[in-house]
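Hi there, hope your week has been kind to you so far. Do you reckon you could talk me through the fold, stretch by stretch? Thanks so much in advance, here it is.
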Amino acid sequence: MQGLRLIFSNFTNSNLIVGYLSAIVAAMLFGSVSTLAKPLLSTVDPIILSSIIYLTAGLFFTPSAARTRSKITTKYFFLILTSAISGAAIAPIVFFLGLKMSTAADTALLANGETVFSILFALLIFREKLKPIGYIAVTLILIGVFLVTTNLDFNSSIFSLNLGNVLVILSTIIWGFDNNICKIIARQIHVSRLIQLKALIGGSILLGTVIISGIPFNIQSEQILPIILLGVFGFAISLYLYLHSIKRIGVIKASSLLSLSAVFGLVFALIFLHESISINQVIAISVMIFGIHLMYTYEKKDEIIFK
C-alpha cells in the first residue's frame, strides 16, 4: 500500500511539474506575439492575419487530432463552437486591431489583462478555489504584473484611453472567458482535438468574413514565414501548452504563470527593439517569481488532476 501511495505521489508531482513548465513555455511563446505581429500589420489586414494564423494552427494539429478518439456530445459541440467564435474569431480580430493602433510594447504589457480576467472568471463564475497561501501568491503575481505594466509611470501612454489600448484590453476579457470554457472542454476532449476544431472553425469564420467583405489578400512572400511562425508557435503550441497546464494546475495558477509573458515581452523588446529595462521592472519580475514559488511550494499537494 505504501508503494502504491509513493507511485501515485510521484505521478501527481510529475503532472504538476509538467503543468507548471507548460505554462511557463506558453508564456514565453505568447510573449513573442506582439513583436512578431506588429510589423505585419502595417500591410496585412487584421482579419486576414487572424484567419491565416488560426487556420495554420488548426492544420498543424490535424495529424495529432486524427489519432485521438474523443466523443463530442451536443453539449461539448456547443462549447467548442462558443470557444471558436469568442476565442478564435472575435478576440484575435480585436487584439490585432488594437495592436495595429498601439505599440508592440504597450500591447505586450496590456495582454496581461488575460491573466486577471481568467482568474476573475474562474473565481466568480466557475467557483475555482485556492488555499489562503494561493491567494497571496496570486496577489503577488498580479502586483508584479501591475508593476511591469505601469513601471510606476502614471503619465505613460499605456494609461491613455486610445482606441488601440481599449481594444487590446477588450480582447483579453474575451480570452479570459474563453480560457475557462476551454478548461471544461479539455476534461472531455483531447487538447489536440480541441485546438484543431477551435482553430479551424474560428479561422474558417474569419476567412468567410474576408471573402464576403472583399478584403484584398495583400501578403508579400517575405511575410509568409513570420505568419506561419505566429500560427504554429505564438498561438497553436502556446495554446496547447497552456491548456495542458490548465488541466494539471487549474485556470488560476496557469493564468498566473501566463503573466510571465510580460517578462518575456520585455526581454524580446530588449533584444530585438533595444529597449532598456528599468529597476521597477526588475523588482516586478522578482515579485512575480516569488509568487510563483509560493504557489508551487504550498499548493502542489492538493491539486485535482484531470486525466
Summary: The CA atoms of residues 72 and 204 lie 20 Å apart. The chain has one domain: 22-300. The first helix runs from residue 2 to 31. The mean pLDDT is 80.
